[in-house]
Amino acid sequence: MQGGTPCDTSDLVTRSRRALLAVSSMALVLAAVFFARTARVAPHVRNLAIASLEGRLDSKAEIESLHASVFPRPQLSGTGLSLRWKGRTDVPPLVRIGEFSASAGIYGLLGTPVRLRSVELDSLTIHVPVGGLRLKNEDHGAPSAQPDAPGIAPHARRTGRDALAIDEVIAHAARLEIASTKAGKPPRAFDIHDLHIFGFGQHDGADFQAILTNPTPEGRVQTVGRFGPWRSDQPRRTPLHGNYVFKRADLDTIKGLGGTLSSHGTYDGVLERIEIEGETETPDFSIDVAGQPVPLTTRFKAVVDGTNGDTWLEEVMATLQESRIQARGAVVRAEDVKGRHVALDITIEKARIEDLLKLAMKDTRAPLKGAVRMTTKFLLPAGPEDVIRKLRLDGTFALDQATFTNLDVQRRISELSQRGRGDETPVEGQSVVSKLRGRFALRNSSLRFSDLTFAVPGAMVQLAGRYELEAETLDFTGHLLLDASLRDTTSGFKACWP
To answer: Are 54 and 152 in contact (CB under 8 A)?
Structure first.
């Protein structure tokens, strides 16, 4: 080739081979470093996850197995994650997870903190011990019975909090258990469906949404809110807030009641004191002894201890058909039997006696009509008995004017008035009685009356006795006071009154 040096192809090939060998060697070195680093992913994540969980939740964390893989995409999987609050071994773990898996970016796995995109949980169980999240002597200012459980290093609680961050936690099937106070009794359980937690590991808490099944009355609750930050020193002081919707709760799951309840509202506070405001609607509320559905709506304010479920009703405004009812009281866990005691103070100012009687009588037509005022103590003890048999009432009532709907009773009331006045001429409104009032007490489905009085023109009646709700029988005795003299009652009282 003129004007130049002939190309030495063999030298070019040699140089190319050397460059390729150098690149390959460098790639192998980088790959060896990379795989040496990724081989430490599982222990790296395990150590930081345990440090974070122990630091945030003041619990002893254990993981049975943990596996990490980089290809085809970075992910983790493991089994047997448990958290024992304060390291306690005398109760089931606060949290138990059967299996879990997680996705992440490669830098999320290798960095500090470990950042996971999503974590999916299988067989999640949250167990609240008896008395809630507290130690026996914690409420009295005494030092914790187990201040530093084995395996929980004090520095881990201080420095491990920021070691793990998760964008989203998903549990398609979970269970919340609240332990029974009675030995051998199963815990109160709530099945949780589709639990999502967003931003786990953030300093100001995490958003969540969930669907759960309420056992009694049975129905599904949808809730969205924010939980945390977790107070490891006093878990029951952990804040939360949100809103809920409770749809189509079956009141038939409470023995003695019937109807379908719906409710919605908001909640705000800390675990041991959650303030709730809401409304309920039950278009077909009934008590089995009568079986007559009556529309019932309520507006309420309540305080709930989320660690044991005890509830204090600060204000309940109920409307039963056209009657207004106010109540205050508590729904607290029973110590000796399954369930909760309901204790209320009830005040009725604007109500119709016929609305109230529909709950206790099978007859579709109430025997009495009129505006009623009432105050009563309401106690519904825990236990498996029908509501009407275990319900206890103690109170007073008053009707300024009442009308009997039975024609035969109206006739007898009219005749009583005539005899009492010593006049055979009927008066306008003779079926109306006035000043009907008395005391009552309900025990074992037997409604007993004392100091029962009422007046009609010309007479005053004083009675005492009982009404058996299930048998629908009456047994009353009393006294009759007449305005007219005995000489004027020519036919005698027995002729007009049974």
So the answer is: yes
Domain boundary among 350, 367, 390: 390
In sequence order, what DSSP letters do the residues of 49-61 get, joined into one string?
HHHHHHHHH-EEE
| 321/253 same-domain check | yes
The token duo for 157 is 């609680």
Domain of 407, in residue numbers: 400-495
H runs (alpha helix) in 128-213: 154-159
The pairs formed by 20-23 with CB atoms below 8 angstroms and a separation of 24 or more are none
Instruction: Using the structure block, give the residue that is written with the tokens 């507006």.
Output: 299
Instruction: Report the SS3 class of residue 420.
Output: helix
411 against 204, higher pLDDT: 204
- Do 356 and 337 share a structural domain? yes
484: left (phi over 0), alpha (psi -120 to 50) or beta: beta
CA-CA distance, 198 to 202, in Å (whole number)? 9
Q: Same domain for 328 and 365?
A: yes
- Could you give the CA distance from residue 390 to residue 413 in angstroms, rounded to a whole number? 35
* C-alpha distances out from residue 245 to 9, 263, 308, 314, 453, Å: 81, 6, 21, 21, 47
Tokens linked to 153: 């290093």
| Of the ranges 41-55, 145-159, 445-459, the best mean pLDDT one | 445-459
Q: Which residue has the higher pLDDT, 482 or 351?
A: 351
Note whether 68 and 45 are within 8 A (CB). yes
Q: Which of 129-138, 226-235, 395-404 has the lowest mean pLDDT?
A: 129-138
The pTM of the full predicted model, rounded to 2 decimals, is 0.71
Q: At a CB cut-off of 8 Å and minimum separation 6, what does 349 contact? A: 324, 326, 373
Q: How far apart are CA 176 and CA 325, in angstroms?
A: 34
Contact at 8 Å (CB) between 305 and 273?
yes
| Residues 9-64: tens digit of each pLDDT | 666 556 565 555 555 555 544 444 444 444 556 676 777 777 777 777 778 888 89
